TrEMBL record:
The lineage of its organism: Bacteria, Bacillati, Actinomycetota, Actinomycetes, Micromonosporales. Keywords: Membrane, Transmembrane, Transmembrane helix, Transport. It comes from the Bacteria. It is a multi-pass membrane protein. One of its GO terms (molecular function) is transmembrane transporter activity. It comes from Paractinoplanes atraurantiacus. This is Major Facilitator Superfamily protein. The keyword Transmembrane helix applies.
């Protein structure tokens, strides 16, 4: 019977979902600081090595919606386990590859890990009692920010000096194996059955790849280049076509009605804002603290290792604490208020970095404030989505939200890199970003964060039931159990 099985192993469910969320954040962020070392050790040029990050991003956009839907149709556990197995295989390949081409293939396989977060949220919703659901979702979601911070620190520690970059991927091997072992112990529930919209999945994948590829490569190709313009135009045409295709499909990959539902739409826009702000914060701060102060008059001349431990680690550590606390706050005042508050605090943190960067303490403090805000935002969004969708849509709703966060992060990274490269001062033969370039980057992140919070406050109606909706979730779960038993 499903109820005894849920009660029998509750302690393993949350660690498995949290570990999976941590893993995908680790995989996304850990190679970024060591791309120059990868290029040097594999003899690849800067353009080619950039695909180590881009390949994962494109794979994530392709696989996440499909795997989220498969979790509903086939059952979440088997899809969760299969995704972890592919992620583990990709991690092993990345750790043993001695050619840039094989490393890029490995990163494509690792890109499937992005589906672990929405699948994990689906597991929580199906298996946990309502009283534990909100807090547990907040913990799992907050590990996204923690994993990203830990990834940057681990990269600095594992690759200091001339160390083999492959050490970072052995870390993902270990983490993948641990998470897979946890996942195998989880209870299995039958899927709801039904068809999978593979045509819709293919069209959506093509549209997202056409959108994300020029965003991630625009700085290299040139924003006005033919490739960028053609791909943006193709993305627009394909995604509009996807919208009309899904309206005509009996069992669509993504419900158009769900996407148009105002709370879902606004939460997805807020996810873009949070993703944008997070990458703007981490990227700009990493470059800023490494700026040679003797030549630029600002920055702290930090090494990659010092950047990771002194400047980035405090934000990751604070996120570990703030995530569960944010979950408790969601249970008290509702996810709408927590998300809006997070965006406001994040905007203040980013804005303060425009002038509070003359010494290490104030820079670290402002970074910690912004990092805590990101953790709060991550903790609140799944609860906001769950309070407005049916159980059958939990996986795909969180999948779309994850993609929107990824799109926002990609745009944030691209804009910050463009700003830092566009405003430089020459020191000898080296072009270094100006202090004003960093100010612009921080202000831009603050504005986007603030806009996200304003959208949440203005366009998501206050709903007392959204504080918990225990009765509703319980009723829905009972219905889901009956449907699963019939499948």
């Amino acid at each position: 019977m499903t109820t005894p099985e849920r009660v029998a192993r509750p302690r393993l469910l949350l660690p498995a979902a949290a570990a999976a969320s941590f893993l995908l954040a680790l995989i996304q962020s850990i190679p970024v600081p060591v791309l120059p070392q990868i290029a040097s050790q594999l003899g690849a040029d800067a353009t080619t090595v950039g695909w180590v990050s881009t390949a994962t991003l494109l794979a994530a956009s392709s696989f996440t919606p499909l795997l989220g839907r498969l979790g509903h149709v086939l059952g979440v556990k088997p899809v969760f386990v299969a995704t972890l197995a592919v992620t583990l295989a990709g991690s092993v390949l990345a750790a043993t590859a001695h050619d840039i081409s094989w490393l890029i293939v490995a990163r494509v396989l690792q890109g499937t890990s992005f589906a672990l977060f929405p699948l994990g949220i689906s597991l929580l919703r199906h298996e946990l009692p309502p009283a534990k659901l909100t807090h547990s979702m907040a913990i799992v979601a907050s590990t996204l920010g923690v994993g990203g911070g830990v990834a940057l620190v681990a990269a600095g520690l594992l690759t200091q000096g001339d160390a083999d970059y492959r050490r970072i991927f052995w870390l993902t091997v270990v983490m993948s194996a641990i998470t897979l072992a946890l996942a195998l112990t989880l209870p299995k529930r039958p899927g709801a059955g039904g068809r999978v919209d593979y045509v819709g999945a293919t069209v959506l994948s093509a549209g997202l790849v056409s959108l994300l590829l020029p965003i991630s490569q625009g700085h290299t190709w040139g924003w006005g280049s033919a490739k960028v313009i053609v791909l943006f135009a193709a993305a627009l045409i394909i995604l509009v076509g996807f919208y009309f295709l899904e309206r005509r499909t009996a069992a669509p990959l993504v419900s158009v009605e769900m996407l148009r539902h105002r709370p879902i739409l606004v939460t997805n826009l807020a996810a873009m804002a949070v993703g944008f702000a997070m990458f703007a914060l981490q990227l700009a701060t990493s470059y800023f603290v490494q700026s040679p102060s003797a030549y630029t008059g600002f920055g702290f001349s930090a090494t990659v290792l010092q950047t990771s431990i002194i400047y980035l680690l405090p934000g990751a550590a604070a996120s570990v604490v703030i995530g569960p606390l944010a979950g408790m706050l969601v249970g008290k005042v509702g996810p709408r208020i927590v998300l809006a508050l997070a965006c406001g605090i994040g905007a203040v943190g980013l804005a303060s970095l425009t002038f509070l960067h003359d010494n290490k303490v104030e820079t670290i403090a402002a970074f910690v404030v912004a990092s805590c805000a990101i953790a709060m935002a991550y903790a609140s969004m799944p609860a906001l989505l769950v309070s407005h969708v049916q159980p059958a849509e939990t996986g795909i709703a969180n999948s779309v939200n994850s993609i929107m966060r990824t799109v926002g992060g990609t745009i944030g990274s691209a804009l910050v890199i463009t700003i830092l490269a566009g405003q430089t001062t020459t020191v000898g033969t080296v072009a270094l970003p100006t202090e004003n370039a960093f100010r612009i980057s921080y202000v831009l992140g603050a504005i986007v964060f603030a806009v996200g919070g304003a959208l949440v406050l203005l366009f998501i109606d206050p709903d007392r039931r959204a504080k918990h909706r225990a009765g509703e979730v319980s009723d829905i779960r009972a219905t889901a159990d009956l449907e699963g038993a019939r499948a």
